[in-house]
Amino acid sequence: MRTKVLKLLQQANRAYISDGMIADRLGIPRKAVWKHIGELREMGYRIERAARNGYVLRETADLLLPEAIASGLDTEIVGKHIVHCEVLVSTNPEAKRFAEEGAADGTVVVAEEQTGGHGRRDRLFFSPLGKGIWCSYILRPTFLPREAPKCTLMAAVAISRAMEAFGIAAEIKWPNDILHEGKKVVGILTEMRADMDRIRYVVIGTGISVNIGEEEFPEPLREVATSLSIICGEPISRIAFFQAVLHEMDEIYCLVEREGFASVLSEWRRYSVTLGQEVRVIDVRGDTAFEGCAADIDEDGALLVDTAEGRRRVDAGEVSIRPRACAR
Q1: Are 155 and 204 in contact (CB under 8 A)?
Q2: How far, in Å, CA of 21 to CA of 6, rounded?
Q3: Cα 242 to chain center, whole Å?
Q4: N vs C: which end of the chain shows fewer Cβ within 10 Å?
Q5: Which DSSP symbol is given to 62?
Q6: CA-based max dimension of the chain
Q7: What would the pLDDT profile of 221-268 be if each residue is shown by its tens digit?
């Protein structure tokens, strides 16, 4: 209901609207209107009141509300339906719940805060209130289940494109991180439910650190993580950046559905900070490690590493980049 109150204020286009009119249109008592107005003010909206005129919205908050995101967004599939939550433990479980209930292809679940966001191998992901874009995409693609791992590469390319549009250089570290000058800005976690011959749904969780100050990061992360605002030296509109990401995700996803992943893999190579580097690979169980040169990715998105014993194919695992680049 609070979102509906906000929508009426926005539709008034900086004109006053009385609490009585809001109450009548929404079928709620005036006391409820006052309550929702108060909550919106607490969330950062500057709403003024004149005794005889009612309320007027003077300044909006940078909240990732569906109405704010939809304004000016022209996508075919991704972001046509957005589920906004103030606080979630993690967006991926919520997205999977919606997917099981029949959520449409391209539905996006976004939270202002995650209290238990996590990445691969259940590592916690710092997701403070109002400081990033913590969201999950529900996709129902027509390609086969074996292609699903490449959705991580697809999301990485989309977000890297959006960063470039904002003048920020992006570096993709295989398989699921986006860096800037060696520091992590974005984490991606892809999950799937499928039968042998078809995908029921893919959920791509992405965490983008947008306006986190350097001192706000927990001490262990300050040396390895950064945010868009730190890079740019000024706050970034989360709404504008989210719209850019949704636009790129939609464009790439529609292309993949029509033509396959070839162009995504090619573009991923352009952003890659892993290829051509000496790397140390720890397998998914964490008990086997080897080193070599990251030579390429294959058509399935697996990393190809040249070692002293020959080329090895890595489907999943932990990759750390060593200081020295190698010849490709």
Answers
A1: yes
A2: 13
A3: 8
A4: C
A5: -
A6: 82
A7: 999 999 999 999 999 999 999 999 999 999 999 999 999 999 999 999
Residues 269 and 156: their CA atoms lie apart, in Å, by 11
pLDDT > 70: what percent of the chain? 95
> Which runs of E-coded beta strand occur in the chain?
46-50, 54-59, 82-88, 107-114, 132-139, 171-173, 177-180, 183-194, 199-209, 277-283, 289-297, 303-307, 310-314, 317-325
Instruction: Give the tokens for residue 54.
Output: 């009612």
Please write the tens of the pLDDT for every residue from 290-311: 999 999 999 999 999 999 999 9
Backbone φ, ψ for residue 274 (5° rounding): -90, -45
Using one digit for the tens of pLDDT, what is the confidence trace for 152-205? 999 999 999 999 999 999 999 998 899 999 999 999 999 999 999 999 999 999
Compute the C-alpha angle 63/64/65, nearest 5°. 95
Beta bridge partners of 176: none
Distance CA 235, CA 263 (A): 33
Tell the burial category of 254 from Cβ atoms under 10 Å away from its Cβ (0-12, 13-18, 19+).
middle
Nearest to 103 by CA among 123, 117, 86, 83: 83
Q: Which residues lie across from 46 on neighbouring strands?
A: 59
- pLDDT value at position 39? 84
Are 90 and 205 contacting, i.e. CB atoms less than 8 angstroms apart?
A: yes
Do 149 and 315 meet the contact criterion of CB atoms below 8 Å apart? yes
Residue appearing with tokens 């980049």: 321
Contact 239, 64 (CB under 8 A): yes
Contact predicate 82/108, CB 8 Å = yes
pLDDT digits (tens, 9 = 90+) for 44-62: 789 999 988 899 999 877 8
Q: Which of 282, 267, 287, 269 is nearest to 312 (CA)?
A: 282
Amino acid at 30: R
φ, ψ dihedrals at 135, nearest 5°: -150, 165
Report the DSSP beta bridge partners of residue 202.
139, 192
